[in-house]
Amino acid sequence: MKLIVTDRTGNEHELTARDDWSAMEVIRDANLPLSAECGGACACATCHVYVDEAWTERLPAAQQQEIDMLDFGVAVQENSRLSCQIKMTPELEGLKVTLAPESL
Amino acid sequence: MTANVAQPGGQHKTDVVIIGAGPIGLFAVFELGLLDLKAHLIDILDRPGGQCTELYPEKPIYDIPGLVEVTGQGLTDKLMDQIKPFGATFHFSQMAESLEKVGDGWRITTDAGTQIEARVVVIAAGGGSFTPKKPPIPGIEGYENTSVFYAVRKMERFRDKVVVIAGGGDSALDWTLNLQPIAKKLVLVHHRDGFRAAPDSVNKMRALVAEGKMEFQVANIKALNGANGQLSSLTLNTKEKGDYQVPAEMLLPFFGLTMKLGPVANFGINLHENLIPVETEKFETTTPGLFAIGDINTYPGKLKLILSGFHEGALMAQQAFRYCKPDEKLRFQYTTSSSSLQKKLGVA
User: Do B136 and A77 touch (CB under 8 A)?
Assistant: First the structure.
């Protein structure tokens, strides 16, 4: 399945996602710049992405832990998610996300 | 947990200085200790454990050999117990700032003025130093240390000022409650009407808002307005209101910590994508006497696992012994059978 990622310079990348991988793992596997410091433990908010408006409602809702962790994200918006908490499934074929700005 | 913690600003001499008191730095103390090598550890955090205690103290780790399940804090506590016999000295809340060659060894100076001389330096700095996240608001750097602060060192600086605090964690709420009584005006800005901070602090903040003693705005900070490093207002934004301005003389963003390589980048070490290349026999850098173990190093096949860092520390210690005690023969022994090792461990 495809995961479409826009990087911080505005370039779009069409990545091949594997079932059950997190979006964060797919993005890092493609060597796009996503620090994901805690390695997927929902403990650092450095895998922050913006979800394309067409997809915000279609993603499984964020758990409380992710909502709380986003308090440590920078430049958080309504469509902010932590990509380590988005599990890729066939229903998410073609999901579009944008890498959020990082801490300076 | 009792640790030998040094006061900042002192001068010390030891065998090995370890930069980073995460699990890998801690276990290195054990491997060095078995070889009678003394160690000092420097860490930017105010306690041992590194990522384990800063990022996931309560989260379970399942891949430490022999420990079916242990939390980040639990592993740190166990390692501190395990290295207790070796009396390492800790320099907490300090950043290793410079490294210089002195004779056969090194002198490390921290940002608190502590100086440590050692024959061997081991960099076990993980993903780097934990430093406050800086929100990517255009021009924010021009206001840093005059109007924008990522920590409160002197509360008096905020007396009678219009202070805006951004964030929703414990630091944001704690400083809101601490500074509200002395600030001229205090505004808390957070992207949602909900907080990861302790409910008790949130309730206290809401009570102050209800009494008209401070403001809480659900909004995003879009721009900083002012001149010559002096902030005069912030442009906030919400979907409903669009852009609007609030007066502000001081801004305190509290968005947790992130890892930055920091001054290690200026130690003159060969770096590859912010990692330190090492060989895999001794985990030494291309500079003799300077080692890198744990997540901060890189070599063919590297896995960023605590397990791997422990192994790297054991091999590093062998070579550290050869540097520190060149006239002594290295005797490879097992803790199970060696009475001399058991004496060092205080169990014989």
Answer: no
Tell me which CATH homologous superfamily contains domain B134-255: FAD/NAD(P)-binding domain (3.50.50.60)
Is there a contact between B78 and B70 (Cβ–Cβ < 8 Å)? yes
The CATH class of B4-131+258-344 is alpha beta
CB-CB neighbors (< 8 A) of B136 in chain A: 74-75, 101-104
Among the listed ranges B63-77, B245-259, B264-278, B317-331, which one has the minimum average pLDDT value? B264-278
Q: What mean pLDDT, rounded, does chain B reach? A: 96
- Which positions ≥6 away from B71 have C-beta within 8 Å? B56, B57, B58, B59, B60, B61
B123-159 pLDDT, tens digit each: 999 999 999 999 999 999 999 999 999 999 899 999 9
**CB neighbour class for A15 (10 Å; exposed up to 12, middle 13-18, buried from 19):** middle
Q: Model confidence at B2, in pLDDT bands (50, 70, 90)?
A: low
Note the Cα B215 to chain centre separation in Å: 32
Q: What is the pTM of this model?
A: 0.91
Return the CATH fold of A2-99. Ubiquitin-like (UB roll) (3.10.20)
Q: What is the CA radius of gyration of chain B?
A: 24
Of A38, A43, A71, Cβ closest to residue B167: A71
